Amino acid sequence: MAKYIRSRKPNAIKLKSKVTSIALKHNTGAVVVTTNDKDHHKFSHVISTIPLPVLRTIDLSQAELSPRQSNALCELDYGPAIKIGLQFNTGTDRSGKRLNIVGGQSYTDRPIRTIVYPSFGMSEK
Fold first, then answer.
1. How far is CA 66 from the centre of its chain?
2. Which domains does the chain have, with CATH numbers?
3. pLDDT tens for residues 24-54?
4. pTM exceeding the 0.85 threshold for the entire prediction
5. Are the CB atoms for 56 and 73 separated by under 8 Å?
């Protein structure tokens, strides 16, 4: 993505700059990103991949977030996570019947909580 953006506008990505605020300007339709408390950069779109705890430190008061978006930023938090990959030749239920699970998710009240069944790479070994 960075390569494409730079091919269209070489100076669009600025590194080593602390973002202090993000604001939406209706009169111009621009998103204004302020860095280092003084430099203002105007963009038509902004893609933020900032972790939530860091995003909460940026002034978004002029970003015109909906109440639900603002509440989500305040309430969402990271939880412990781990990924484990397992591969089986076949999957069967307790009676020995083949399950034929391809893609999807299961939820449980056990500590594992979520099980994801990929829908790709099934023919690979």
1. 18
2. 2-75 (3.50.50.60)
3. 988 888 999 999 878 888 888 888 888 888 8
4. no
5. yes
